[in-house]
Design a protein that fits this description.
Blueprint: H1 3-12, H2 23-37, E1 46-50, H3 56-63, E2 67-72, H4 75-84, E3 89-92, E4 106-112, H5 121-131, E5 132-143, H6 147-154, H7 157-163, H8 176-185, E6 188-196, E7 205-212
Parallel strand pairs: 1-2, 1-4, 2-3, 4-5
Antiparallel strand pairs: 5-7, 6-7
Length: 215
């Protein structure tokens, strides 16, 4: 099966119009940090939404005044996004290889619930760095795997098997420490990773902000 067919099949199983998980938390985080990243500019700047899905947060960025490009590896979510937000600039890209975007062309890159699906994490982060301007900001969210959450999975064979299902589309599993270290290794600075959602000690979500090192 081709990767494109695989991703299309995943999206066809998602009910159209469904809200992404923790949408409110991620919207608040994104808009606050994106505005802060561009606070010294005359205009809000250019933002790239990688893995934009049905375009919920790309549309929020447009409403906040950003010029936005949305990327996804499947046509189905882009079809839905175009129907809901026809003015969005949405583009289909391959799951591997470079993105058809110029170097240093964005002030902010947002990747909501995307990095855990990426097979070639190194190649993906290299593309993020390439398209970010010097000093630009990477903002992302991904499921959290803190100690209590992992202990809960270890104590329940049923939950463990479901979470780490070999057929799941989640390929990577991050803790606050491993995500921070990964971003450091790819030359990002001012890295902040915090946990959100759920209960103290068993948060559902990691929210990360980082700045591309200057040339």
């Amino acid at each position: 099966m081709a990767l494109r067919d695989y991703h299309e099949g995943l999206w066809e199983a998602v009910p159209e119009g469904s809200d992404p998980p923790d949408l409110g938390l991620r919207r608040t985080f994104l808009l606050e940090h994106a505005r802060s990243a561009c606070a010294q500019r005359q205009t809000p700047g250019r933002a790239l939404d990688v893995g934009c899905g049905e375009g919920h947060l790309a549309a929020e960025l447009v409403q906040a005044g950003f010029t936005v490009v949305g990327l996804d590896v499947a046509e189905e979510p882009l079809r839905r996004a175009r129907a809901r937000h026809p003015a969005l600039d949405l583009r289909l890209v391959g799951a591997e290889g470079p993105w058809p975007l110029p170097d240093a062309s964005f002030d902010v890159v947002w990747a909501g619930e995307t990095i855990e699906h990426v097979a070639d994490t190194g190649g993906w982060l290299s593309e993020v760095r390439r398209v970010l301007r010097s000093g630009g900001s990477l903002l992302l969210s991904t499921p959290a795997h803190g100690r209590l959450a992992m202990l809960g999975l270890a104590l329940s064979q049923r939950r463990f098997d479901a979470h780490f299902d070999p057929l799941s589309d989640h390929l990577r599993f991050y803790t606050r420490r491993t995500l921070t270290r990964l971003l450091e290794e790819f030359g990002f600075q001012d890295i902040e990773v915090r946990e959100a959602g759920g209960l103290p000690g068993a948060r559902r979500l990691l929210l990360a902000s980082a700045r591309r090192s200057r040339f």
